[in-house]
Design a protein that fits this description.
Layout (H helix, E strand, L loop, with lengths): L2 H104 L1
């Protein structure tokens, strides 16, 4: 029996053994992957429940900030309107005074 004949008989046995071992390892890794994915799914569901429970709080905060913003906008608009009216009145008085001065000069 020569070396080539010996390798022709032993090499397929070694390859079959390696293939079986690789298949077993892949099955074990697949099972561990499935278990890990189940744990991840449980964690994601838990986080989702907690986020949904906080949704109400965030909605309340959002509504409150909207109301506060609208109130402050009204206040700012009122103050800006008051200031513009004050300056408008001063400008009108200055125009009237200039017109009166021009009328007096013409007379």
């Amino acid at each position: 029996m020569t070396f080539i004949d010996f390798m022709g008989q032993v090499l397929p046995i070694i390859l079959y053994a390696a293939g079986i071992a690789l298949l077993i390892i892949l099955i074990i890794i697949g099972i561990k992957f499935i278990k890990t994915m189940n744990k991840v799914e449980d964690i994601v569901e838990d986080v989702d429940k907690k986020v949904k429970s906080l949704n109400g709080v965030f909605n309340i905060i959002d509504n409150m900030t909207d109301k506060i913003s609208s109130v402050t906008d009204r206040i700012v608009d009122s103050v800006a309107g008051f200031i513009s009216r004050v300056f408008k009145n001063k400008k009108n008085k200055e125009k009237e005074m200039k017109e009166n001065d021009e009328e007096k000069e013409e007379e």
